[in-house]
Structures are given as C-alpha cells and as structure tokens.
Amino acid sequence: MPNCYDLASFILRERGEMTTFKLHKLVYYCQAWSLVWDDKPLFPERIEAWANGPVVPRLYDLHKGAFKIIKCSRGKPDIFDKEQRATIHAVLKYYGGKSSQWLTDLTHKEPPWRNARKGLGPSDRGNREISHASMVEYYSSL
Length: 142
Fold this sequence. Notes:
The chain has 142 residues and is mainly alpha-helical. 53% of the residues lie in helices and 7% in strands.
C-alpha cells in the first residue's frame, strides 16, 4: 500500500510548490474521497484534527518548520494504480486550485474535523484521530 509520502510526492509533482497547510488538506481530501469512491484508504497513516485542520503527523515530521514545500523526497509518486490516480486527479481538479485558507476554512466547517475537536478550543493543541468511519459517513452523504 502506498504511504503518505507517496501521496505527497504525487500531489507536489502534479501541482508544484505549495504551503504545507495546503498539502495536508489535499492529502486529507484524497484519503476521504478514496474511502468513499474506492472503498479503501490511499495510505495507512493516521490523520489528526489539529487546530489548523487535518494533519498527517508522520508527513508533518518530514517538513516541520517549513512554510512551503516543493517536493517530498521520501515518496514514490508512481506507486499508485489507475483507480487511485483517477481519485487523486479528481480531488486535485476540484480542491487543487483553492487557497490554503479556503481549504482550512472548509475542513473547519465539516463534521469529521469538528467532531474530532469536540471539547477543544480553537487554538488548543490536539491529536485526536479523524477516523475513516467519520470521513466515509460525512463525505458519502455529499
């Protein structure tokens, strides 16, 4: 199974340099829509509901401290099969042109992130997981 680095590498190859905030939101939406459309995750790493939106901690550790990212040196972008690439391309077509702030605002309105943040203040640190079940429940209803 591909991992979060592979997906980040694929996204950066397709869309070029972007903020780390935006990369994490695109990774999140790719995972969510893969769960809905393909009935399987794109990668095994957990996604957590941080104050600024969904974050994959393992990916964050790779670029910690960077505002923008150009490439993900650990990833293998060619590892995805045809179905997975179609899902990623569809997500990038819809979400890829949006700003980091727009994507952050969107995730903050949606139940998977909001429910994982219950009881936390807007700027409180948190590491609660956004479950696959919560993503499937919400995004399949759209």
